[in-house]
Amino acid sequence: MRWNLQSYIKKKLLRRILVKTKLKTRPSILTKSLARITFLLVIINTVIQFLIYGFGIKKDWFLLFNMDKEVNMPTIFSCILLLICASLISLITKNYEDMNDLNLRKWNGLKWIFVFLAFDEGLQIHEAFIIPSIKPMLPAILTVVWVIPYSIFAILAIIYFMPLLKSLPRKIKVMILFSGLIYISGALGLEMIGSFLVRTGDIRLHGISYGLISTLEETLEMVGLLFFIHTLLKYIFDYQKQILKINLHISGSN
Questions:
Q1: Residues 25-30: what's their mean pLDDT?
Q2: What are the pLDDT digits (tens) for 69-83?
Q3: Which residue among 120, 165, 167, 254 is least packed, with the fewest CB closer than 10 Å?
Q4: What is the CB-side half-sphere exposure of residue 69 using CA atoms within 13 A?
């Protein structure tokens, strides 16, 4: 009897098929994938900055990858990173047996901060704090007015979450501090430095120097978030002993 591959496929695959694949994800798998995307976005943006300010080349599609602009691919990716942080924190809270635990409430508070930051990144909520009339009254380094309330909020957040940080394993504690330092250095530090240099006339607002500062600023934000994601995953796997499983169901029918 002649073997008919097509008939075999119809009989076996067009009936109901259930394939269960359990994927045990390690921290490095996710963070390496996100890091590759970050690297690609940074390279594309850097090339765009040199094409615009070095050679005067301007294309409409540059706006999609220009980190000096808003509501584009880098912005969306940053929002995704922030929401991944919020999701992982939510996963951490599910491992708490005592629902009245003070640390649980702090984890939940941190989760909602990342949700807010994701919306802020996408909708540019912080821009509402920029009031042109008070700019002349402020030092050059505070030209971007929103850094004032956000810096105050960052300080208050550090004070509030310090007990939670102290309760964590030493390695996780150091990694969280390092990721926070990287993120704040970009989000607040380089933002103020760039504004200061523009206000004092050392660089032009629309020039290669400012473009590269903006690139470094966004890169540090993404790297800080990547490192924080890796830290949360490490805490989930190595200390909470959780295992992430993805079930893949493939069904076929006539």
A1: 70
A2: 888 999 999 999 999
A3: 254
A4: 13
Tokens at 176, concatenated: 């969280």
Give the angle 108-185-124 at the CA atoms, nearest 5°.
65
Separation CA 204–CA 199 (nearest Å): 9
- Amino acid, res. 11: K
Q: Measure Cα distances from 94 to 88, 108, 165 in Å.
A: 10, 10, 18
Query: What's the start-to-end Cα distance of the chain, in Å?
Result: 25
Domain boundaries, the chain: 23-239
Residues 6+ apart with CB under 8 A from 75: 121, 122
Give the Cα separation of 127 and 120 in Å (integer): 9
The whole-angstrom separation of Cα 72 and Cα 38 is 14
**b/e burial code for range 112-122 (CB count within 10 A of at least 16 → b):** ebbbebbebbb
Measured in degrees and rounded to the nearest 5, phi and psi for residue 122 equal -80, -35
Tokens of 190: 């380089």
